[in-house]
Design a protein that fits this description.
Layout: H1 2-19, E1 22-29, H2 34-50, E2 54-60, E3 63-65, H3 66-78, E4 83-87, E5 93-95, H4 97-104, E6 107-110, E7 115-117, E8 122-125, E9 128-131, H5 135-151, H6 156-164, E10 168-169, H7 171-176, E11 182-183, H8 187-194, E12 198-199, E13 204-205, E14 212-215, H9 220-228, H10 231-250, H11 256-270, H12 277-295, H13 301-317, E15 325-327, H14 329-362, H15 366-370, E16 374-379, E17 387-391, E18 394-399, E19 409-416, E20 419-424
Parallel strand pairs: 1-2, 1-14, 2-4, 4-6, 5-7, 6-11, 18-20
Antiparallel strand pairs: 3-15, 7-10, 8-9, 12-13, 16-17, 16-19, 17-18, 19-20
Helix pairs in contact: 2-3, 2-9, 3-4, 5-6, 10-11, 10-12, 10-14, 12-13, 13-14
């Protein structure tokens, strides 16, 4: 009887076991970079390999690279794997470029207390941050977002307002305005809600209830790429590299030049190597001023000017503004602070270190100062045997062509290796 009951139970559960679906999840956490694009690509490939029911994208981003964002949107358009974008966890944001990815996904969802929007592009100018209103740029972006909203049957007017009016929405507002489909406190609840949803854009009905969620582990290459392409970390690499290079030129032999070149290369790689002639000029000018500060006494004026030039050059070189980075104005300010604050700290430290190095270099040699000074014999000296003398609290090995007893005073005539050559004091 037990065997029969077990067999019947197994037969009843068999269809569910067979039909158990897999959901692959990836995280877009932080700025959208080249590393994010590679993560998205490899995530889709893995989802196809697993024959996953969907790719679940957990989003918490201030925005990021526009080029990378548009490539991610293309990947979503071309895949047959449903992409469920979910602004998660509570308190997360999907601003600027993150909003475009959310609107372009097959399913859009948000956790409670999250925010999307702030997608009007902004650029840094001499007057500070200014929104970009050029019709060519705005029209292109609004047409793209509106088309993605239409494709997935979402509110096109709200999608356009994200770009033109910097519209921000919480989950309740976004759902009411039909920008997203679901509000969910956790992944399990979300998958229960999406079960049975028909995706018109790819003509598919989701089967996500009781699906197994597999967290995707990116390769070391993608993890490294994510690390070095983070704009904040890349800007710090750049600043450190510049000051290491200056220190290396001023005080060769410590390997600072090599470290400087490596750090600058990593910084430029992470920032997309966006060449700005004025920025390069200011950086080189700043380095020259810092080096001149060491050679020419200027009460720190040249050094301070060098630090200021380096800071301005770094800000111009770091591409915080649209179109390189499609991020919120608030995050652009954070990026600039990431450049300015470490630059001031490292600059002051560099000037202090160089001051100490030059002070040591200009100091008279200790051995030269010893010649002609008096020392006390602490162990008898003979022409055939060295003894010891005390000089300014230090014990030195000493020799002489005369016999000198312990306690006698001697004159230091010269130094031969570690041994002082002395003679009796007359």
């Amino acid at each position: 009887m037990r065997r029969i009951i077990f067999l019947l139970t197994f037969l009843l559960l068999l269809p569910q076991l067979v039909e158990a679906k897999k959901i692959l999840s990836i995280e877009i956490n932080g700025p959208i970079t080249t590393g994010t694009l590679e993560l998205f690509k490899s995530g889709l490939e893995k989802a196809e390999e697993l024959d996953a029911e969907a790719l679940l994208v957990l989003i918490d981003t201030p925005g990021g690279g526009l080029t990378e964002t548009l490539e991610i949107v293309k990947l979503i358009d071309r895949t047959e794997i449903p992409v469920i974008s979910y602004v998660h966890p509570k308190g997360a944001t999907a601003w600027s470029a993150g909003t475009i990815i959310l609107v372009s996904s097959h399913v859009a969802a948000m956790s409670p207390n999250t925010v999307i929007g702030s997608a009007q592009p902004a650029a840094l100018s001499s007057q500070g941050f200014a929104p970009i209103n050029e019709s060519k740029i705005i029209n292109a972006l609004t047409a793209l977002v509106a088309e993605k909203a239409r494709l997935h049957r979402r509110n096109e007017t709200a999608a356009v307002a994200f770009i033109k009016e910097n519209l921000n929405l919480n989950p309740e507002q976004a759902k009411q305005m039909k920008v997203i489909e679901f509000i969910s406190p956790n992944i399990e609840d979300l998958l229960n809600q999406t079960n049975g949803a028909y995706l018109n854009s790819i003509k598919k009905t989701l089967n996500t209830k009781n699906a197994v969620v597999i967290k995707y582990k990116p390769s070391l290459r993608i993890q490294f790429l994510n690390l070095i392409t983070n704009p904040m970390l890349a800007s710090i690499f750049l600043i450190l590299g510049i000051y290491a290079l200056v220190f290396g030129f001023a005080s060769p032999g410590f390997g600072s030049e090599i470290a400087g070149v490596v750090l600058i290369s990593l910084g430029l790689l992470g920032l997309g190597f966006n060449i700005n002639i004025i920025a390069i000029f200011l950086l080189l000018f700043g380095i020259i001023l810092l080096l001149l500060e060491i050679k020419v006494p200027g009460f720190g004026a040249l050094g301070i000017a060098g630090i200021i030039a380096t800071i301005i050059g770094s800000i111009l070189l770091v591409p915080t503004s649209f179109p390189r980075y499609f991020i919120s104005k608030e995050f652009q300010k954070t990026m600039i602070a990431t450049v300015v604050v470490p630059s001031i700290i490292f600059g002051i430290f560099l000037l202090f270190a160089l001051y100490k190095v030059m002070k040591i270099r200009k100091k008279r040699p200790v051995i030269g100062e010893m010649i002609g000074d008096t020392a006390i014999v602490t162990e008898k000296i003979t022409p055939k045997k060295t003894g010891y003398v005390e000089y300014k609290g230090e014990t030195w090995q000493a020799s002489s062509n005369k016999k000198i007893e312990k306690g006698e005073e001697v004159i230091i005539e010269r130094k031969k290796g570690p041994v002082l050559i002395v003679n009796k004091k007359l």
